[in-house]
Amino acid sequence: MAQGGCVAAPGAADPLCARIIARAGFDALYLGGNALGLAQAKGQPFVTLTDTVEATARISRTIDAALIVDAGAGFGGLSHLAGAVREIEAAGASALHIDDQPYPKSPDYHRGRGALVSIEASAARIRAAKSSLRDPETLLIARTDALRVAKSMDEVIARGHAARDAGADALLVLDLSPADAPRVRAALPGVSLIWIGGVNPPIPTLEELNAAGFGAALYPFNTAAAVSAAIADLWGAFKATGRVDQSEALLARMRKETLEIVDMASAWDIEDGANG
């Protein structure tokens, strides 16, 4: 995926967070299913295709950076997946990933009870997704949970081969560490590897991920963690003390920066030109 090293794609599930991250200088962002479910206060297993398409469209309209989108297990059977891929791509995704989890997704996934569909079923998803893409520049990423669920690197490699043969442009292996990445790269030469993590420390540095040969790094949870913690701390403290514990300097800074984030100056220029 990357020509000049590992591309970092921080997670963003709404346009405000996406704009803040893009203004920090990132060339790619990641819309993950878990972050989107959390943003809607209902959890990943209940995220719908409509939710995903609408969030993709809102975020892609807000930023110039590439947007990588979690298309999950495709939101149904193969024909449903084909339609989902077309809609997500049309909404502005630069890349999307299809996983090998069962559908519908079980809430048990989030307490360590993951499962896998067969290699054949997973490859069929990739073939259906590949044939549904309209833009040859849109990247198709195959995600496998085989390392977490089956605890088997051989299973990861077998699924990687099947995904590559089915048309995947890159492979995302859940829980794949920099130390183990060379084995996958050796078994699948020419296939770009995508890292995903940041949920549990220690979190590898971008330099470490680049040295291990990852083409991109996705950070699905860190933005949601930062936002949730900040809001909980602010209003939890207020409930206890009745006082808003934000400094004058912070509020002054953010009064200015939030207007910059939403590019209010462009609206002012239009108004001033119309009235000039």
Topology:
Layout: E1 7-10, H1 15-23, E2 28-31, H2 33-39, H3 49-62, E3 66-70, H4 78-90, E4 95-98, H5 119-132, E5 139-144, H6 146-149, H7 153-166, E6 170-173, H8 181-187, E7 192-196, H9 206-211, E8 214-219, H10 222-241, H11 248-261, H12 264-275
Parallel strand pairs: 1-8, 2-3, 3-4, 4-5, 5-6, 6-7, 7-8
Helix pairs in contact: 1-3, 3-4, 4-5, 5-7
Task: Offer a concise description of the structure.
With 276 residues, this protein is an alpha/beta fold. The chain folds into 2 domains: 7-227, TIM Barrel (Alpha-Beta Barrel), CATH 3.20.20; 246-276, no CATH class. 49% of the residues lie in helices and 14% in strands.
Structure characterization notes:
This protein has 276 residues and is of the alpha/beta class. It folds into two domains: 7-227, Phosphoenolpyruvate-binding domains (TIM Barrel, Alpha-Beta Barrel); 246-276, no CATH class. It is 49% helix and 14% strand. It contains twelve helices and eight strands. It has helices spanning 15-23, 33-39, 49-62, 78-90, 119-132, 146-149, 153-166, 181-187, 206-211, 222-241, 248-261, 264-275; strands spanning 7-10, 28-31, 66-70, 95-98, 139-144, 170-173, 192-196, 214-219. It has an eight-stranded parallel beta sheet. Strand 6 (170-173), helix 8 (181-187) and strand 7 form a beta-alpha-beta unit. The longest helix has 20 residues, at 222-241.
| Highest-level CATH class of the largest domain | Alpha Beta
Number of helices: 12
Architecture of the largest domain in CATH?
Alpha-Beta Barrel
Helix content: 40-55%
Shape: globular
As for the number of domains, it is 2
How much of the residues is beta strand, in percent? 5-15%
